[in-house]
Specification:
By secondary structure, the chain is mostly helical. It has five helices and two strands. The mean pLDDT is 89.
Length: 165
């Protein structure tokens, strides 16, 4: 995606925005939006699903506690699913429709964290940061860090990935 640029996550010439609090996160689509990222991921998943005969694709998009990316919305997922059911040989030859599953789409970060904990996720081994330091530690101030920390706080927990930054 770096060859396309257009995002602070793929273009070294763009700076990842930082804030002190979740309330400071803007309402416009942020510069960390990667153009067509989930479209690309879903297209690759669709091609693979068709080859292996799967009629189910799962993607971890979230439409509640997120930075406002247009390709994380239920409307986008529904439109891609409709397109996928028109665009493949499997859709022409198989009576079963392809389904895109979004188990996290309507969950808050706190709910996602609780679900992960119930499944045994070791969150100290995970990272959400858009701009980690050279050691791999989260920056603590990008949108992803702030939203993740908010989710842990709402669960009454400290984010185990956060250390002195």
């Amino acid at each position: 995606m770096a060859q396309f640029g257009g995002s602070a996550l793929t273009d070294v010439n763009l700076v990842v925005p930082k804030s002190e609090t979740v309330e400071e996160i803007g309402t416009a689509i942020p510069i960390t939006y990667v153009p067509a990222r989930n479209t690309v991921f879903l297209a690759l998943a669709l091609a693979f699903a068709e080859v292996v005969g799967s009629r189910d694709i799962f993607i971890g998009v979230n439409a509640l506690d997120y930075s406002g990316y247009p390709d994380c919305r239920p409307e986008f997922i529904a439109a891609f699913q409709a397109m996928a059911n028109l665009a493949t040989r499997a859709s022409m030859e198989d009576d079963r429709p392809l389904s895109i599953h979004t188990p996290l789409i309507a969950m808050t970060k706190a709910e996602i964290i609780a679900r992960g904990l119930s499944l045994g996720v070791d969150y100290s081994m995970t990272l959400s940061c858009y701009d980690p330091g050279p050691s791999g530690k989260p920056c603590g101030h990008c949108d992803a860090c702030l939203l993740r920390q908010k989710g842990f706080r709402e669960q009454g927990l400290a984010d185990p990935a956060v250390t002195e930054v």
